Amino acid sequence: MHSRAPSSVAVITALVFLVFMSVQPPSALPASEPLQIAWAGPLTGDVAQLGQGWLNGVKLAVDEWNAKGGVLGRQVVIAPEDDQCDPKQAATVATKIADDPRNVALIGHFCSGATLAGAPIENKANLPQIVNSSNPRITLQGWHNLFRPIANDNIQGKRGVAYVMKALHATKFALLSDKQAFGQGVIEVAKSTIEAGGGSITSTGGVEPKDVDYSPVLTKIIKMENPDAIVYCTNFPTSAGLMLRQIRQLGYKKPVIGCDGWFDPAMIKAAGSMGSMTSKADAAYITFQAPPYSGPEAPAGVKAFAAKYKTKFGSDPNGYEIYGYEHGNIMLAAIKAAGSTDKSKIIDVLHTQAVPGILIPRYRFDANGDVVNAPLYIYTVANGQFKLVVQATD
């Protein structure tokens, strides 16, 4: 038998179909393709535990959304990148994130120096971005895509020293930082707060956070300046613990003030027996953005989160885990409200619509991307545990 030649109509139809398929954009993804959110933070190095906890919180939020059908009918996946809390590495990571067309949004970076290095690159890609970095300069760069749902250094640098001035009548302060963007930012605000309140600064300096012996700097401060309080701000909890231990070993029995990088079990471990308070006068006062996860001071919503977290990860949250959970939920809620993965539409939602949360009932952002009414808490260390002193307000 001979095969029948195709009709001219069939040939034309086939050609039209082939042309149509050839002009489809190669980046167009099927509706079933996962919706990818990039994440950037420290997963190795001294800040890795804080970064991993923050990432775990994001993962918990994503799992809950996926269990309910995902977002826009698509399952959500997280694509983590380790920036090591290092600006150079953060720039490399940011380029990788910005160049990946699958990334709909970004949760990152964690450390301020990393954000200041990576955000200009991510801004050019117009990625909706939520950061956990507190340096005030971050939201003053005109990065319309960037949002900060956490207290910045203007809040943290102010409230820690203000509490010690009021509660313990301290007037003379020695200020130290780890020479990085976060630590220096907090110290700058602390200095202006002290001076505005009638206090004085005996010295302002810095140390290398990876050093293990701070005694040359501390001996000068304690023996020659004799301040009413010492402030040391760092992202590195081991450095904070060593600093506190050496301050006490030199016989200094006055307040020491630390920032949120201190709020980590690694700090308590490094400080050892020298870390716990014996009285209010010689306590370490640590500012942190989250309330306790357990005990009578813990809000019901925070306790509920802690229980879910332990069920999933087998350990108790103790740092930024709830912020990861909040940030994941904020971003996914914004994508849902936008009804699209269009980056500009997601950014518009974050600028114009309030998003529900646990730590703040309704997350709203000002024109710069800073959250309105950010909470801050002051802790001390007692019996090897962080203990809430007060929720700090202006």
Structure description:
This protein has 394 residues and is of the alpha/beta class. The chain has two domains: 35-151 and 299-363, Response regulator (Rossmann fold); 153-288 and 377-391, Response regulator (Rossmann fold), CATH 3.40.50. It has twelve helices and 14 strands. The protein has helices at 8-22, 48-67, 87-99, 112-124, 153-168, 181-196, 215-225, 237-249, 265-271, 300-313, 321-338, 343-352; strands spanning 35-41, 76-82, 103-107, 129-130, 146-147, 172-177, 200-206, 229-233, 256-258, 284-288, 355-356, 362-363, 377-382, 385-391. The strands form three sheets. It has a seven-stranded mixed sheet, with helices on both faces. A five-stranded parallel sheet has the order 2-1-3-4-5, sandwiched between helices. Strands 11-12 form a two-stranded antiparallel ribbon. β13 (377-382) and β14 (385-391) form a beta hairpin. α11 crosses α12 (343-352). It is globular, with a radius of gyration of 25 Å. 48% of the residues are buried. Residues 1-29 have low confidence and may be disordered.
